[in-house]
Amino acid sequence: MLSSCYITFSGGLYEKDLRNYEAYITAIIETRMPTAEKLVGIIKETIHGLTDNYYCELYGSYKTGLCLPWSDLDFVIINKQGQPQEQLFLTRVYNALRNKPWVTDIKLIENTFVPLIKIKTSEEFLEFSIDISIQADKHQGLKCVQLVKMYLEEYKVLLPLVLALKTLLFHAGLNNPDRGGLSSYGLM
Hints:
Elements: H1 2-9, H2 13-50, E1 54-59, H3 61-64, E2 73-79, H4 87-97, E3 103-109, E4 116-121, E5 129-134, H5 141-154, H6 158-171, H7 184-187
Parallel strand pairs: 2-5
Antiparallel strand pairs: 1-2, 3-4, 4-5
Helix pairs in contact: 2-6
């Protein structure tokens, strides 16, 4: 049943519309990418400047290629020694970032399933949202990236389809898992 559905969809009118939407979104993301890359460098440099024991990795939609103009930059901080993560280090990162001139809003959210820092950048930095969390057993962000990339490689039509569905969820206010919505990984 699924294969006949795929055959009907593939190459049809809807696929053309989805591919056009993908091209439209890709053009917008390309204009935002230099700023995103600059922010990635700043965050990584800040973490490295605090200690050599930790580093951070980008994960989420910017890492998988499923980002939209309103997508945030997701970072996970990893302890190089593989030791249990210290909540105190997240506080140190928060303190290092809170007075940066490009930060317009910053919150340290400690009492949650995965503690994190939420940042909103200035207009100069395109008002990006940034989430920074610490690697722990319950944090599966990096593993999700691997799986999503595998799916995107296997099913070529998945990228434009997921971009369109993510847009619909965003406009319906159902794209934020913290508020009962669906994450990109959940959508996959």
